[in-house]
Amino acid sequence: MINLEKKIAQNTLNLLRNKSWSALTLNEVLKGFKNKKINFKSKSDLLKNINRYVDDQLIKKMKSIENSSTKDMLFEVLMARFDILQLNRISFLQIYIGLKKNPPIFISLIPSFLESMIITAELSNYNVNGVKGAIRLKGLMLMYFVTFFQWVDDNSPSLEKTMTGLDKNLDQAEKIIKLFS
User: Fold this and answer.
1) Distance CA 26, CA 45 (A)
2) What is the pLDDT, as a whole number, of residue 175?
3) Residue of 135, 102, 127, 95 lying closest to 15 (CA atoms)
4) 4 and 30 Cβ atoms separated by less than 8 Å
5) Between residues 96 and 136, which one has the greater pLDDT?
6) Crossing angle of the two packed helices 110-123 and 130-152, in degrees rounded to 10
7) Among 106, 9, 90, residue whose Cα is nearest residue 49
8) Least enclosed by CB within 10 Å: which of 48, 112, 164, 179?
9) Residue 26 three-state SS
10) H or E stretch including 48?
11) Residue 19 has what DSSP assignment?
12) Is the pLDDT of residue 70 over 90?
């Protein structure tokens, strides 16, 4: 991710601390970047950029993690993703509220979310190759969204409810995978 894209993602998140997603405009976000070559045509582009920004932060954060079992790695990587979201909690909640009101935009972002889940799988040494891998990838994304909804309701500073929910979700996913193996 190039520095300009990072700065735009950070600016978007900063603006969302005091403004709803629906009130935010593309021009407002890009205001300070007028002389730069920017290929953002819609607010959906801003969301995809923020998603790449979170992925970039996750990759940096995971460079220092020790290898463990796949389940433990998935837990660590997914919790690291939620820790990154937590740093800009208000902004991500604004995005969530905006996407709830506009499902077509959410649907258009699914390929971007799948890319993020591929990165998550790679960082976790979780095999998502082939037909079984494609099913696992979709299951991972579903599990992430279920846990995301738990994160939305988790107001604890240590994300205890999110951690507990993620652990239970991983256990359930492991049981389902064993049924189909």
Assistant:
1) 9
2) 79
3) 95
4) no
5) 96
6) 100
7) 9
8) 179
9) helix
10) helix 43-62
11) S
12) no
What secondary structure letter does DSSP report for 33? Answer: G
Give the tokens for residue 110: 């699914």
Burial letters 71-104, b for 16+ CB under 10 A, else e: eebbbbbbbbbbebbbebbebbebbbebbeeeee
Cα–Cα distances in angstroms (integers) from residue 71 to residues 7, 19, 42, 57, in the given order: 34, 38, 37, 21
Cα separation of 83 and 58, whole Å?
9
pLDDT tens for 9-34 read 999 999 999 999 999 999 999 998 87
Distance CA 132, CA 181 (A): 9
- What is the Cα–Cα distance from 62 to 46, expressed in whole angstroms? 24
The structure tokens listed for 156 are 């604890």
User: Could you tell me the two tokens for 33?
Assistant: 């970047």
CA distance 148 to 91: 14
> Which residues, at least 6 apart from 79, have a Cβ–Cβ distance to it below 8 Å?
159, 162, 163, 166
Core vs surface per residue 117-133: b (16+ CB within 10 A) or e: bbbbbebbebebeeeee
Q: Which two tokens stand for residue 54?
A: 């979170």
- How far apart are alpha carbons 85 and 159 in whole angstroms? 11
